[in-house]
């Protein structure tokens, strides 16, 4: 604030320079909310979250996001692999022509903070994923899209493995196991989910890895041991 001079017969002294204003504090991270329910948040799962969310939720919808393709390009040293033998799990790759099917979960009230706290450990701390806002289209009402939070592994995270031939990915999946189970279980559960979505749900990358695993599995272990993996 400028200081007014009280002297009557002398010109006022030059006001002291005001310090540069401090930049406003950064706003807290914003999560997409359901316009029809400000207390609700939608979370989009496209990997293990489609069959094992492990957090309380109020509603769930099967559907898809456009502009992304699912890829087994993220390494996993905890859930489906180890430090010495990282497993392969999925992330989203920006792709103008892409379409990825999954499940959106609605959390409300206290469920919001509990779900985000849990997922921060599961997906961010242990998985190397960041959050991203996506537009989700429910399978039954695609004309009523909604904003959702998705966990995406980018090339900047230390666990990112990147592209590889489907046969090489299949070999890695067959060899790896983590605290959540065998990497093969992860692959097959995801493939089962896609079948339940119907013929309109396509994922050529996933299908190619499943085919490669089917060809290689008898070479890795006898039939009885193969069944035990899943």
Structure described in brief:
This protein is α+β, with helices and mostly antiparallel strands. It has helices spanning 110-125, 166-175, 183-197, 204-220, 223-229; strands at 33-34, 37-45, 59-76, 87-108, 130-138, 146-152, 177-178, 181-182. The termini are far apart.
Task: Draw up the topology in text.
Blueprint: E1 33-34, E2 37-45, E3 59-76, E4 87-108, H1 110-125, E5 130-138, E6 146-152, H2 166-175, E7 177-178, E8 181-182, H3 183-197, H4 204-220, H5 223-229
Parallel strand pairs: 2-6
Antiparallel strand pairs: 1-2, 2-4, 3-4, 3-5, 5-6, 7-8
Helix pairs in contact: 2-4, 3-4
Provide an overview of this structure.
There is one protein chain. The chain is an alpha+beta fold and 230 residues long. It contains 5 helices and 8 strands, in the order ββββαββαββααα. It has a 5-stranded mixed barrel. A hairpin with a 7-residue loop joins strand 5 and strand 6. Helix 2 crosses helix 4 and helix 3 crosses helix 4. The N terminus is likely disordered. Keywords: Apoptosis, Cytoplasm, Golgi apparatus, Lyase, Neurogenesis, Notch signaling pathway, Unfolded protein response.
